């Protein structure tokens, strides 16, 4: 159970003392004898650069037994008699001293967490003066440990985690230690694959953090463990070393041909299996490229635990031929199989719901892809450029709808009951200056007696108009441009209308562009300006008219406009003297409004 940390201020203590109210169980920081000053000297949160405490005179920090913890400053915490300082750089706590509560104890236990902060360091001399201590427990979360925390280690046993900072300090300094109380901070699986498993002390779970494979007599399949020392292995992250490094570590896994991922693994890091995603880095004078450059097979074990995959998981695995995904994989993340040309077939598991953006781009030889009916979201560019691909799935599924709208060959294997309509086309045309959209559905809904089509404004929510139709194709007459449409079917059950789910909204948009205009000549004669436009077939066939302007070249003065023109030649009269720019632009009439094209070229005209 986490205890709440409370603090009592100096001003509160002074106030209580003035009114003669006793403070029971008052405690003070214990100051090492070799740095003691007068009676008011206390530890401050500062450091003089040598690791020793800075002592400040003139005030006394007092802490009461009525609180489980108290602080001398914003970055000081006292918990169970141990004084911690917050590390502003590493977001952890460092043990810096103790209170009188620890004076007579024989055993000290350093916790992994105090509140929500990890205990990650112990400062030199932090337990000086404690003469009764016979044992101290230091978890592997403490990565900054010094043997000089006590006056002497004589008669004291250090209970620590194997391969932790405290463990290595004990080995180097001849301190009596015992590793039975804690799981190892990391384990190198020498007998199997040379995988380093690193313990996360906050979650008490292991991460498979690196491999040490070299000079194998035959291709190797990496089989990750699902537990270490009774604690679960929940993630794989080769790029996360947790400070672990051992001699001759190799990150380019040329001899790894296969990977087996057990049920317990809940997460793979971004680009974990990608040979090229991670940056090359230097070890000594060598540039190390990491990754599974010759990987051909990956198998996910079946189970109940969902697994989270991140972007680029298998990207650039150019030799990857076989991928067996389990039902634990609920999404294909973005760019998962980018540049995997050896992959020719893939079966997505039942229970998967989403295929992310660009997920299969670059799998250029993918011929067969099975998409289960549970998939209800596929990114628009998920399969861009896959010219050899045929998708297999259930009739009436979202996969069939997606393939229809993206012109990907689809073969149905069985059928599912269609829960909602799918809009596969919204073709628009301009007839007699009004927009008409034809909305086609994938197919008629089973037992449908009719359909309800709703146009929605740009927010995709506000209903603009509702139309009822008897078929799975509907023409929306005189419809606004750049809005959305959705549809649902209905049938009668027990004398009442029962509606299906709404379809996904589809965009109603027709690009309408007026023809371009070319101003061929502009000339002034007295107070008249005559303009001649080129016989541009594009303009005269695609536009309903044009607006023309004579615009003053200075900010003041009169500009002249002629609207709704239809002929190549026009004249401005009664133009005041000055310099003007002549220009025009054509328009088309759409639903009673002008839709303009590009501005024409300009010609300068001087009226005298």
Architecture blueprint of SSEs:
Blueprint: H1 10-18, E1 42-47, E2 53-56, E3 76-79, E4 82-87, E5 92-98, E6 107-109, E7 113-114, E8 117-122, E9 135-138, E10 157-160, H2 165-173, E11 177-178, E12 186-189, E13 195-200, E14 205-210, E15 220-223, E16 227-228, E17 231-236, E18 256-261, E19 267-268, E20 281-283, E21 286-288, E22 297-300, E23 322-324, E24 331-332, E25 345-347, E26 354-355, E27 368-370, E28 377-378, E29 390-395, H3 398-406, E30 410-415, E31 423-431, E32 434-441, E33 450-456, E34 463-469, E35 473-477, E36 483-493, E37 496-499, E38 506-508, E39 519-525, E40 528-533, H4 537-542, E41 545-552, E42 560-565, E43 569-572, E44 578-590, E45 593-599, E46 603-607
Parallel strand pairs: 5-8, 6-9, 9-10, 10-11, 14-17, 15-18, 17-19, 18-22, 22-23, 24-26, 25-27, 26-28, 27-29, 29-30
Antiparallel strand pairs: 1-2, 3-4, 4-5, 7-8, 12-13, 13-14, 16-17, 20-21, 31-32, 32-35, 33-34, 33-36, 36-37, 36-38, 39-40, 40-43, 41-42, 41-44, 44-45, 44-46
